[in-house]
């Protein structure tokens, strides 16, 4: 059960919300944990004034550099005046006073978060489902077209040596969160380090771009209402986003991604090759090295679910239990080796 009192401290948070919004009706509110968040905790806040969304880290000891609320708020504020659809940030606190941890609050954007089932009566036609795919790629292409310096994000990351640091970073995260050795995962990390491609010019990258991290417009399947979950965003290689989206896009007859069931296996959703073609059409980038990026995506996601399992076992995920993922970690590592031809 979610302990709203200890996670949100309503008596302290209410007055802060009232001041930030200029609306005293936010002095008291109801809150519920939104399912789907497996890293930072996401809450829907409701008062007589309407609804807002709050993001905060999980409870307990956190891994270094993870769960940075200030970065999430900063990138969304920076992108607010670009074609990239983001939620407006209402308030951000990095001093850990109100909730004893950094957090931020943003507007609640109307839209469909599509996870393991299509909303009833929504995008039933194959053409509508193709429009969803195209809208996702277009939003990603728009993100990768933003000049970081033009929106004040020129210092948002260190793009030089990005891929090598990413592999090293996630390898360290794995060592910090695993409950047992996973030789296949270590072999995949070694193979990735030995096969790094030359990166294209750096862009803003989302870091976890997929269908259920976007809200789709409720009446127009061809429009992304907002891109969410900017926790892993930085400056770096844009093809890491593309490879991750390919990984999160199983086709009919393929195995679902662990912990992230999706609808892309349903009739009407286009193939990964369609997504790649659309991305090339929009950006002009060479995507011939995508197999490497798909392998890296499997490595990164395997480490992420190791961390999810560790935080859940430690009681840091507000009562959410994601079960035993050890076999999934091994399967992902082996699939990554296959993608590299290194098995």
Give a verbal description of the structure.
By secondary structure, the protein is of the alpha+beta class. The protein is built from 10 helices and 9 strands. It has helices at 4-8, 10-21, 69-79, 126-145, 162-177, 183-193, 239-247, 272-283, 290-313, 326-340, and strands spanning 30-33, 41-47, 50-56, 89-93, 103-107, 203-205, 214-216, 224-227, 234-236. Strands 1-2-3-5-4 form a 5-stranded antiparallel beta sheet, sandwiched between helices. A two-stranded antiparallel ribbon has the order 6-9. Helix 5 (162-177) packs antiparallel against helix 6 (183-193) and helix 9 (290-313) runs antiparallel to helix 10. The protein is globular. It starts with a helix and ends with a helix. The mean pLDDT is 91.
Task: Present the secondary structure layout.
Elements: H1 4-8, H2 10-21, E1 30-33, E2 41-47, E3 50-56, H3 69-79, E4 89-93, E5 103-107, H4 126-145, H5 162-177, H6 183-193, E6 203-205, E7 214-216, E8 224-227, E9 234-236, H7 239-247, H8 272-283, H9 290-313, H10 326-340
């Amino acid at each position: 059960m979610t302990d709203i009192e200890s996670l949100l401290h309503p008596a302290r948070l209410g007055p802060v919300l009232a001041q930030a919004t200029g609306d005293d009706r936010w002095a008291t509110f109801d809150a519920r944990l939104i399912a789907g968040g497996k890293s930072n905790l996401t809450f829907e806040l409701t008062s007589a004034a309407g609804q807002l969304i709050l993001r905060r880290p999980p409870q307990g000891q956190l891994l270094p550099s993870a769960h940075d609320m200030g970065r999430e708020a900063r990138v969304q504020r920076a992108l607010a005046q670009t074609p990239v659809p983001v939620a407006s940030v209402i308030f951000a606190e990095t001093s850990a006073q109100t909730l004893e941890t950094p957090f931020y609050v943003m507007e609640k954007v109307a839209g469909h978060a599509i996870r393991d089932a299509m909303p009833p009566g929504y995008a039933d036609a194959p053409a509508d489902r193709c429009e969803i795919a195209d809208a996702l790629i277009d939003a990603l292409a728009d993100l990768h077209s933003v000049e970081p310096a033009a929106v004040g994000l020129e210092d948002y990351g260190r793009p030089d040596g990005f891929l090598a640091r990413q592999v090293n970073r996630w390898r360290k995260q794995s060592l910090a969160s695993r409950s047992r050795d996973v030789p296949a995962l270590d072999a995949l990390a070694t193979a990735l380090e030995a096969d790094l491609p030359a990166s294209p010019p750096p862009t803003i990258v989302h870091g976890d771009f997929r269908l259920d991290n976007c809200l789709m417009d409720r009446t127009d399947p061809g429009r992304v209402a907002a891109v969410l979950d900017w926790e892993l965003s930085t400056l770096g290689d844009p093809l890491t986003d593309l490879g991750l989206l390919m990984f999160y896009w199983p086709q009919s007859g393929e195995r679902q991604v662990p912990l992230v069931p999706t609808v892309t296996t349903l009739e009407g959703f286009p193939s990964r090759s369609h997504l790649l073609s659309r991305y090339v059409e929009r950006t002009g980038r060479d995507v011939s090295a995508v197999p490497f990026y798909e392998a890296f995506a499997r490595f990164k996601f395997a480490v992420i679910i190791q961390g999810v399992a560790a935080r859940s076992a430690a009681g840091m995920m507000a009562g959410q239990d994601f079960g035993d993922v050890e076999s999934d970690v091994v399967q992902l590592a082996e699939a990554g080796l296959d993608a590299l031809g290194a098995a």
